[in-house]
Amino acid sequence: MRHNVAALGLSLDPLDAVVLSHGHYDHTGGLAGVLEDARPGAIYVHPAALENKFARRGPDSFRSVGIPASSREALEGWKDRIVRTSTAAEVAPGVWCTGEIPRARTEGEAEQFFFLDEEGRTPDPLADDQALFIDTARGLVILSGCAHAGVVNTVDHACRLAGRQDIHALIGGLHLGSATHKQLEETGNALGRRRFQYLAPCHCTGMNAHAYLRARFHSVVRDVNAGSRLVLE
Question: What's the number of CA atoms in the CB half-sphere (13 Å) around residue 71?
Answer without folding.
Answer: 21
